[in-house]
Amino acid sequence: MTNSIDDLGASDCFLITGTNTTENHPVIATFIKRAVTLKGAKLILVDPRNIDLAKYATIWLRQKPGTDIAWLNGMMNVIITEGLADDAFIAERTENFGALKETVSKYTPEYVEKISGIPAEDLKAAARMYAGAGAAAIVYAMGITQHITGTDNVKSCANLAMLTGNIGRPGTGVNPLRGQNNVQGACDMACLPGNLPAYKRVTEPAERKPFEDAWGVTLPEKPGLTIPKILAGAANGSVKALYVMGENPMMSDPDIEHVKKALKNLDLFVVQDIFLNETSELADVVLPTAGWAEKEGTYTNTERRVQLIRTAVDPPGEAKPDWEVITMLANKLGANWKYDTARDILDEINKVTVSYAGITYDRLQENSLQWPCPNTEHPGTPILHSAAFTRGKGLFSVCEHIPPAELPDNEYPFLLTTGRILYQYHTATMSRRSKGLVSRTPEAFIEINSGDAERLGIVQGDKLEITSRRGAIEVVADVSDRCDEGVVFIPFHYSEAAVNRLTNPVFDPVADIPEYKVSAVKIKKVA
Fold it and tell me: Distance (Å, rounded) from C-alpha 200 to C-alpha 196?
């Protein structure tokens, strides 16, 4: 997030898209709901489903899944055409505005309506509301990123914020809500194939050198493989061994049958986790590790806030914290690492990672801190880009609408989108072990529009077979108007009806994120 969670309370207007916030980030949702109900903030919701936030929305735009660049460009078209852009911010803080202006000129509200289904007048009203606010915040999540155009979707959000000067001030910003508790921290610490800590590039000798000097090694010059390329390599035999930690690709990756074949083709498959799951069933070796309450260390959350955790209970059996397992394995391979505590690791992070230099163990025992925090006198940074962007001037990116890779047709007439629900978490390795949570959501279901259900002779609770070009699953019908006609929704938490058996294994070309949000399916009742 460019801004802080608490800072959402300072917003006059929210543009919320690609996030079912009340179900997936319920604590953050309370800040938004309070700002709307108690302070009169405006809420523009752009979502294909009638989610809970629609009740709080000033304007709800129901777009067709996979059309986000079109409606974002359409909003910018209105803002530029009607003279609502922040000309001073554009002149002082950005570059490439001319290219953006030319690109969005054809995305008139009427043209966008044909692509997205959003009425032209509603799009105009939303654009005026966002541009006219004193402080407007964009909030998004994986409904924006899990498309073949995911990177450009995010760039388009940044374009809109810069166009209106809604960046670098309280109540503004471009604020992604992360999907798990330490995704931000993992990325910060180089769990990306082309990065070193703090997003330094492995391809740049000057950026590699400080780490090589600190660690006494020569680092690779080429980026590693992304998950799709790893699985492709496992399938064709070029990747021989795989070490999976805290991930469940047999539930979370698209086209699960392909994933299974790839994993079974490995010479060595190691899984490190706190529970046995669908992926570990295929492993040659399973390494048991400690859960969050059973270890010490730090997490970095969605607002870049680093927080210290302390051991509350001892880990069971032979389970150890992840860092201990990794250290033991590295030393067996001759690394000679000398970490005795989690504090030792943070001390090293302080030395080699500039943005974390002032986030020391001693300071975290008093308070959490937000990076960048370059020294121990620095208070942390609640709001990014206040004076300048990291690259200097903000770059307007040219982004064009590209249709999803697979759309409904005569054989597969429904558009499937996937996501999460309040009472389950991710691949449910943990949450489906809770009797209380299971009692609230005991089985897999499909949300189907009442008009579609009537045409197919489907009633609430019917057992349905859902089939795509990749596979088939059986789920229970949940008939409502939450989804638009022609669109269905299935949560991905249920292994016995794993929706990722159906999803399309196509990826954003930059980030290699799968297009989970758009697949074509057909539906029939199970006798």
Answer: 5
* Residue 289 DSSP label: B
Reported in sequence order, the residue ranges of 331-486 that DSSP labels E, i.e. its strands, are 369-370, 394-395, 414-419, 445-449, 463-467, 472-480
- What digits encode the pLDDT tens for the residues 155-171? 999 999 999 999 999 99
Give the number of other Cβ atoms within 10 Å of residue 307's Cβ. Answer: 16
Q: Which residues contact 527 (CB under 8 A, 6 or more apart)?
A: none
Tokens of 148: 């073949």
Strands of 285-288's sheet in order across: 241-245, 268-273, 285-288
Is-above-0.85 flag for pTM? yes
Phi, psi of 449 (to 5 degrees): -65, 145
DSSP H/E element including 346: helix 342-352
Alpha-carbon distance values, 279 to 233, 244, 264 (Å): 17, 9, 11
Query: Could you give the CA distance from residue 468 to residue 453 in angstroms, rounded to a whole number?
Result: 18
Whether 494 and 445 have beta carbons less than 8 Å apart is answered as: no
Q: What is the pLDDT of residues 299-342, one digit of tens each?
A: 999 999 999 999 999 999 999 999 999 999 999 999 999 999 99
